[in-house]
């Protein structure tokens, strides 16, 4: 699935796409967490990479892997929550990655062509 540059409205269609794929794979139990993570990573890519975004999903070895590719070489960086309320209020981005970090079995980013591929995995239920 592809999303055009700056089309933040298309994030809703990624959730529909995910729902259909998980239904085919009979893995709907993971839908809520995967939708939240996919929305965060796609929104992050559209907002910060200023490029089209491609989404791929695969199921292998007991996990579902979601990959979001954009044209920015800059890796995604989660924003750390600190004890200072004023500093937290000024943080503009990176909080969605904390959600991904908390929910995913694993996640990361790797170079892909002229950009990067941000991915996350969820373990399939037994």
What does this structure look like?
By secondary structure, the protein is of the alpha+beta class. The chain has helices at residues 11-24, 31-48, 85-90, 95-103; strands at 2-3, 53-60, 63-70, 106-112, 115-123. It has a five-stranded antiparallel sheet with strand order 1-2-3-5-4, covered by helices on one side. The two termini are 28 Å apart. The mean pLDDT is 87.
Which secondary structure elements does this structure contain, and how are they paired or packed?
Elements (H helix, E strand, L loop, with lengths): L1 E2 L7 H14 L6 H18 L4 E8 L2 E8 L14 H6 L4 H9 L2 E7 L2 E9 L3
Question: What are the defining features of this structure?
Answer:
single chain; 126 residues; alpha+beta; 5 strands; 27% strand; globular
* Cα shape: globular
Question: How many angstroms does the end-to-end distance come to?
Answer: 28 Å
Residue share in helices? 25-40%
According to DSSP, the number of beta strands is 5
Could you spell the SSE succession in H and E letters?
Answer: EHHEEHHEE
Cross-sheet strand order for the largest sheet: 1-2-3-5-4
Query: How much beta, percentage-wise?
Result: 25-35%
- Determine the number of helices (DSSP H or I, runs of at least 4 residues): 4
Radius of gyration using CA atoms only: 15 Å
Give the mean pLDDT.
87
Q: What would you call the structural class?
A: alpha+beta
List unreliable stretches of 5+ residues. Answer: none
What does the largest sheet look like?
5 strands, antiparallel
């Amino acid at each position: 699935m592809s999303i055009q540059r700056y089309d933040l409205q298309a994030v809703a269609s990624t959730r529909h796409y995910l729902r259909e794929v998980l239904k085919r794979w009979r893995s709907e139990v993971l839908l809520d967490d995967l939708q939240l993570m996919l929305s965060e990573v796609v929104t992050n890519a559209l907002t910060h990479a200023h490029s089209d975004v491609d989404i791929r999903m695969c199921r292998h070895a007991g996990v579902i892997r979601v990959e979001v590719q954009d044209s920015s070489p800059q890796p995604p960086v989660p924003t750390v929550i600190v004890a200072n309320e004023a500093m937290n209020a000024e943080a503009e981005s990176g909080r969605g990655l904390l959600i991904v970090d908390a929910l995913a079995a694993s996640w990361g980013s790797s170079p892909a062509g002229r950009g990067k591929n941000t991915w996350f995995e969820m373990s399939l239920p037994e």
